[in-house]
Amino acid sequence: MVWRPDGDPRTLAPFCERAESAGVDEVWLWEDCFLHGGIAQTAVALMSTRSLVVGIGVLPAPLRSVVATALEVATLATLFPGRVQVGIGHGVQDWMRQSGVAVASPLTLLREYVTALRALLAGQTLSVAGAYVRLDGVRLDRIPDVAVPVLIGGTGPKTLALAGAIADGVLLDCQHTAASVRAALEHVARGGADRDLDAFRRVMYLACAPSSSDVRSRLVEEAQRWHVTPETDFGVGGSAEAIRDGAAAYRAAGIDTVVFQPIGTDPDPLEFIESLQRR
Fold first, then answer.
1. How would you write 98-152 as a 3-class SS string?
2. 0.90 surpassed by pTM
3. How many domains does the chain have?
4. pLDDT tens figures, 82-111
5. Which helix (H) or strand (E) holds 43?
6. Rounded Cα distance, 261 and 173, in Å
7. Domain assignment of residue 31, given as a range
8. What is the CATH number of the domain that holds 230?
């Protein structure tokens, strides 16, 4: 499940506790400007639970140095082994310009950043002189005992291909139908043609409206907000059977982890869990 950061941060801990008790495997957290920090959210989610896996999806690469990200992620993964995964993305370019950190080539930065982050978390001593990432003999003193999956989040063909080429997985947002997911994963596969992708993660946020009334109109409205077509193929909702069948179409298209994302204005995160449990 997704915990959306446009809600009250004081609901995060009880949401994660309830999610874990309901048998949810993973909770994913956004870092959207200018809401709540992804690292801080993750620490709260991990401290509030005992076994829940927490994903950060995504951290914008321009906002913090790769060493700072490696330090934070390594600390969390050392304290909570096997329970942390992180997605890295370009960041929304308007927000990056607003923050004064936009770069001329977001794809180059993402390539250098993810390559360096994976190497640092694996315990390597790193010296690089890239266009954006420049390190001189950097090595983390404490390396997580359990490897941390580093995913790339993105939408464009080049970014998707980059995920297949260098990352541990790809994170797709909810702006997909089952048909467009298949096409997106084809870009990933082409990028990873020279790699073994058997352990590669294919994660997607899936818009979900677990309601018995106005499900289709709510999903169509959400599809229009994201400019997704055809609108009638967007998201899942309704009964347990309808949600299961709808998610199965995305699994059949190649997604291995479906992350249910509540839709609408100011959704109640606890009610979202309870409504799915009731169904």
1. HCCCCCCCHHHHHHHHHHHHHHHHCCCCEEEECCCCEEEEECCCCCCCCCCCEEE
2. yes
3. 1
4. 999 999 999 999 999 999 999 999 999 999
5. helix 38-47
6. 10
7. 2-278
8. 3.20.20.30
